Amino acid sequence: MDINLRDLKYFETVAELGHLGQAADKLGRTQPALTKCVQRLEEAFGSALFERKGRGIQLTPVGEVLLMRARLLRSATEEALREVGDFARGNAGHVRIGSGPIAADHVLPEICSLLLAEAPGTTIDITIAPSMALRERLREGTIDLLIGLMSEHDDAFVTHSIVEDVVVVATSPSHPVFDLPKVTMNALLQWNWVLPDQATPSRQWLDAVFQSHGLAKPTVQINANSIPLLPRLIARTDLLSFLSRHTLGTGDRRNALREVPLKETTLRRKLGVTYRKEGYLSPAAQRLVTLLRSRGERLFTSAMATGSE
Q: What was the pLDDT predicted at 308?
């Protein structure tokens, strides 16, 4: 049995008005067109749907049942169309975000706020962890997007750059390193360091740089797996560390840090958004990618300016 949804819509209007002429005027159709619509439905169900009453018509018992079902079907259809339409526009959906610590501090709150302002029905899961660990979760499909450090090219992923991240040696502004006539890599080794654990890419890079210059690795007095903790540790000690420039201008004056400028110990890398090439992205996730690509750098810059005030 083939039923045209438009026929059901017209049938519902005829039933509500009880008059073919009035229904034709309301729908902008001719009366013969509506008569054929009713006839098609009656043929499909094998029963009369209307009977005459005075100058108008009224539903038969079969017509009453069909009207009830037609209303339910129309409601379900409209609901489905609304849900699919909202979903297609990114106004609904679920996003599972994995974020590195730097992105979590400087862009994630603002970008999520923008997304929710556009799509209030969106739900979001957030996991904060080192980018390398999150990359494996992305590969496994347990997160949809990774906002963090970009790594080497991988055919399984698509990555869009957001902003450059520069990692430098830093310490408290009163540290004696700033009294040296010239800062060298060898000179930096006379002080102890606080660094992220050895599994962190920036720590591995720093150790490799010292070794490539024929020097010992920095002497680490404090290992920390929490990068956001490092600025507070450094500011209250005479320890050196290796941090993103994005973190140097944040926090209160008591925790202010100063860069130790040295070309050899300056790591330049990119922060970006990464997703699986063959993975499914909900419309909300796609919208988040668009927001990050169009506004991510500005949000980082704005967050840094606010944090340095």
A: 36
Per cent of the chain over pLDDT 90 is 46
Q: b/e string for 65-75 if b means 16 or more Cβ within 10 A?
A: ebbeebeebee
pTM of the predicted model over 0.90:
no
Return the pLDDT at 307: 43
Q: Are strands 92-99 and 145-149 parallel, antiparallel or unpaired?
A: parallel
DSSP state of 240: B
Give the DSSP H/E element, type plus range, for residue 49.
none
pLDDT digits (tens, 9 = 90+) for 118-147: 888 888 999 998 888 899 888 888 898 999
Euclidean distance between CA atoms 164 and 147, whole angstroms: 13
Other C-beta atoms within 10 Å of 302: how many? 14
Name the average pLDDT for the chain: 86
C-beta separation of 246 from 170 below 8 A: no
CB within 8 Å of 280: residues ≥ 6 apart: none
Contact predicate 187/264, CB 8 Å:
no
